[in-house]
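RETRY 2/3 - previous attempt timed out on the joint model. Re-submitting the same 874-residue input unchanged.
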Amino acid sequence: MTGLLTDLYELTMSAGYFEAGKAKQKATFELSLRRLPSNRNFVIVAGLPQCVEYLLNLRFTAEEIAYLRGLPQFAQVSPAFFDYLSGFRFSGDLFAVPEGTPLFAGEPMMMVRAPLIEAQIPETYLLSAITFQSLIATKAARMVEAGSGRGIVEFGTRRAHTPEAGVLAARAAYIGGCLGTSNSLTGLRYGIPVFGTAAHSWVLSFSNEMDSFRQLQKLLGPQTVQLIDTYDTLEGARRAAELGPPLWGVRLDSGDIVTLARQVRTILDQAGLRDSKIMVTGDLDEQKIRSIVSDGAPVDLFGVGTELATSGDAPSMGTVYKLVEVDICGIKRFTAKFSENKGTLPGAKQIFRLPDRDVLGRVAECCAGAEALLQPVILGGNLIEPLPDAKTAQARAAEAIAKLPAGLRGLEVAPPRPVEHSNDLMALIERTRRNLA
Amino acid sequence: MTGLLTDLYELTMSAGYFEAGKAKQKATFELSLRRLPSNRNFVIVAGLPQCVEYLLNLRFTAEEIAYLRGLPQFAQVSPAFFDYLSGFRFSGDLFAVPEGTPLFAGEPMMMVRAPLIEAQIPETYLLSAITFQSLIATKAARMVEAGSGRGIVEFGTRRAHTPEAGVLAARAAYIGGCLGTSNSLTGLRYGIPVFGTAAHSWVLSFSNEMDSFRQLQKLLGPQTVQLIDTYDTLEGARRAAELGPPLWGVRLDSGDIVTLARQVRTILDQAGLRDSKIMVTGDLDEQKIRSIVSDGAPVDLFGVGTELATSGDAPSMGTVYKLVEVDICGIKRFTAKFSENKGTLPGAKQIFRLPDRDVLGRVAECCAGAEALLQPVILGGNLIEPLPDAKTAQARAAEAIAKLPAGLRGLEVAPPRPVEHSNDLMALIERTRRNLA
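RETRY 2/3 succeeded.
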C-alpha cells in the first residue's frame, strides 16, 4: 500500500513532528461518527479488512520519497525524515468495532494508538475506507428492511465511484443484508454469491426475441432469467411462458412495475409456471421497493444498482479522525476541539452497548452487563487473529438490526437511540475544557 | 486488469454468444449520456485513460477462469469457451470524446466496435470509470464557476468512495478546473499540483497554539498556512499575525465564514500582512462558495472536500452502454430499444459540434464547419497515440466552458443546448422502428 495515498498535510505534519522531536510521542486518534448520514437511524460498520490491510502494508517507495523531496513543502525538511519514511512501518494498535455492528451518532468506529507519525498518516485512508463501505452496508440494510422478506441483490458496479469501489460496495451491501451481487470479482475475492444472466444487448443481438430466449435457456437451464421488456413486456412474458421450463423466472426493467408484475404473474401461472419467479430492476431505491411491496405486487427479488452502490440519498457521512490523547514529554495529555458544531471529546473511549442504550465511557472503565464494542484488531503492528468474513458480519448485522426497536429499523428518521456519557468521561471532558480555557 | 471486474451477466452472455457461434460477430456499443445529472447543464468528460488502460490490459487469469467454471451459471458451458477466455485480448476499436469536453443529454461519450464478446465484457468497467470521473470534473467546474476567479482546491479523498477513488476524483477535479489537490498520490501519478499544510491534530499535539504555529512556520516557511480555529479563530489570527512572515496565510474551517474572514483580514492587514491570504474549508459546496463570494468576504482560496469528491448533490448519472449495431450472418443490423423513457438510438453515431448547437449524425456523415467530437483512440486493439494529459484536458474544458452561454455555465438549470438529429439519423431511427414493429 502506497504511503502517498494520503492527504499531503498528513506528510507535512509528519515531517514537522519529526523535526520537533515528536515522532515517538504516543498518540491516540479516534475515528468517530460525528453525525449520522441524512435519513439514517444507524450506520452498519463495514470496511475493516481494507483498513487492516492498509495498516499492515503501509510503505513508502524510493520513487515516492523522491517525489516528496522535490516538493516546496519539504524544502526545509532534513534528510533524516526521508530515511525514516523509507523504513516506515505501522507498529501501533488498532481497536475497532466489528463489521456488521450498528452504530449511532457520536460513537467511535476505530481507535488508533501509535507513535504520533504512524497514527497521523493513516487518517485519510482509514476515513475513506471505513466510511464508504459503512455507507453502503447501511443503505443495503434499508433496502432489505423495505423488501420485507423479498431478496435484494446488488447490481451497482457500473454506478459505483470507480469499478474497484464497486467490488467493495458489493461486499458492503452483502454485509448489510443483500443476498449477493452481480460483481464477479467480489464473488471470487470474498466468497459472496453472484447473480446475473443477460442484458438487453443479448436480446438485441438475435434476430428475434424468441431466439434469444431459447438460446438463454439452453445456456442457463434452471438458472434462466428472461429479460422481457426489450420490445413489449407482456409479449415477452408470453414468449417466456411458451418456452416453459427450465426457467428460474423473468426480469422486469421498465414500465409500471406493480401492474406489469401482476399481469406477468398471471401469464406465468396460466402457463403452469407457478414456481417461476419475477425479478425487478431499474432505478430502485428503498422507497420504491417499499411501495411495490406494500402494493402487493408479486415480486420475488429486487436487483438494485445506482442508489445502493452510491448510497444515492446520502453519499457521504460526517466521520472524523481526531487526536484524543498524546504524550508530551512523557505526560499524557487529553485533547479535544471545542469549535462550534465540530467539537470532539477527549481521551480514548469505549462503547458499552446495553439493550436499550449505549454508554460512551473511558477506555479502562467497565460497565456491568454491557458489550464492549471496540475490540483489539492489531497490536504492536501485528494482526492478532484473522478478521471475521463477510458472511459472519452479515449475520452480526442481521441479528443486531432485528433487536432494534421498529422505529430505528424503519426508513423514516426516528428519535435517536440514547448514547450517554459515563461519569468518568463527563469528568474528563470538564477537566479538559478547563485546562484549555 | 482482471476480467472478472465486471457484472456476471457480461460473462454469461459472452458464454452464450460463444455457444451460439456469435463470438466473432462485429458489434458496436455506444456509451451515452442518457440524462444529465440533476442540477447540471452539461457534463465534462473525464476518465478516458482508465478506460484505455482497462481495454489494453484486460485478461482472465487461470484462477478467475476456474472460479467461473465452478459457478452454476456456467455448468452447461463447453470447455472451448474457457480456453477462449484464457487467450482473451481486446482487439477492437475505441472512439471517444476527448477529456475536458462538455457534453449534453443524449450524446455518446464513447463507442466500442469489436467482436461481440470483446465489446460486451467491458460494459461495466467503462461505465463506472468514465461516469465517475465525469461527475467529479463536472462538479469541479461548478465550484470554479462559483468561485469567480478565486482558486478551488480539491481536498476530498477522505470522503471519496474508497481512497483509490479519491486519487481519480482529484485528477477529475483538476480537469474540471481545480488548481490542485491534497492527494499526494495524484500529484505523483498525474503531475498535478498538491496542497496541504496542517490539521487540528497538529495544533493539539503541542502544549499551546503559539508553539504549534511557530513550529509550522519553521517547517514550511513561505508555504505556511496556519489553521486558526482550533481554540478561538480571532485569537488564532492574532497569534499568526504576531509571528509575522514568512506566512502564505491562514485557514478558517468553522464558524461564520463571511464575518470571520473580514475580521481576520483586518487583523492581518493591521499587522502589515497584506499579502497573507485567507483560505476557507469546511463543508463547502458551490452554493456556499457563491454566497461567500457575493457577500464580498475576503477569501482567496477555497478547499472543498465532501461535496466535490462525491458529487454530493448528484452522485450518479444516467449513462448507458447499448448495442447499436451488430452483424448477424454478415448482414449489418441496427439495434435500438424503444422502451418507455429508456429508449436508445440505432447505429454508430458522431457528434458534430457547432457554435450554438450539436448535431447527432451517423458516423460516416460529415457536417461542414463542425468539430467531430468522437475521435479514434484504440484501433485494432492498439492505442494509436498517447492520450493528452490532465493539464491539456483542463485547458480544453476551460476553453469550452468559456464559450458556453452564461445560462449553461451557471449553477441553475437552464434551457438545454440543442442536440439535433441529422436527417440520416432520423431516417435510420424510423427504419429501425418499422423493422421492429
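Residues 8-135+314-436 of chain B form a domain with the nicotinate phosphoribosyltransferase fold (CATH 3.20.140.10). Closing ticket.
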